[in-house]
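User: What would this chain look like folded?
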Amino acid sequence: MPMPSLLGVFAHPDDESLCSGGVLARHAAADARTAVVTATWSPDTRRGTELAEALRILGAGEPRMLGYADDRVPHSAPGSPRLRAAPLDEAVGRLVAHIRRFRPEVVVTHDAYGGLTGHPDHVHTHRLTTLAVQAAGLERLYPDTGTSWQPTALYLATHPHSALPALSELARAGKGMLTVPDERVTATVDVRPWLEQKWAAVLAHRTEVERGAAPGLLAGFPEAVREGILGTEWYIRQDVVFRGSGETGLSV
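Assistant: Here's the prediction, encoded as structure tokens.
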């Protein structure tokens, strides 16, 4: 059975590599159509250039960007509002346009916590994606964005409570640990066969390595610790209203 087409929707450049780099690389390696929409930053910035390199490494095509500013870095998209300050209907419409253009079977985004750290842009991107995945299938919503298209599955990138021992070095470095009960996890993916590719994509975000953000912290850990943090990806499947009868989803 062929791998389903996959669209990742993430808040910032580097989130795609950290949260779902293994699954993106795995789908691309199986010749599945694979792409990423990034909610913040503009392509003519250094981080936009780094994103393009990371996506090339992962096999996820060219950057697709909503064009809003990072909540904490207003110059990330000059002349555009911060993501959370943008009109909700406008932002959902922009994402619907990308979904209808790419026509993915599966969409992946942040969980309701916004991942381990709960960054407000991550939380907002989760909300936008949840709304847009449903709206994309309704032809009378956002009619100017193309023909309706309903993805069959939405997966939320998350971390279960049982992963806390593997994440202990991040916790000691002061990173938040917003994890979910293990029973909420519906897909556990061993991405170690694609870990070298995933790690190369993380390192492509050199700005974040240099400033000591998550990629920089990970670069300072021993390889075994990094593998424990990045070698498994966990997802919560969220039912999509009006989805088809098929059971398309992430391979585990």
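The mean pLDDT is 95. If you want, I can go into more detail on any region.
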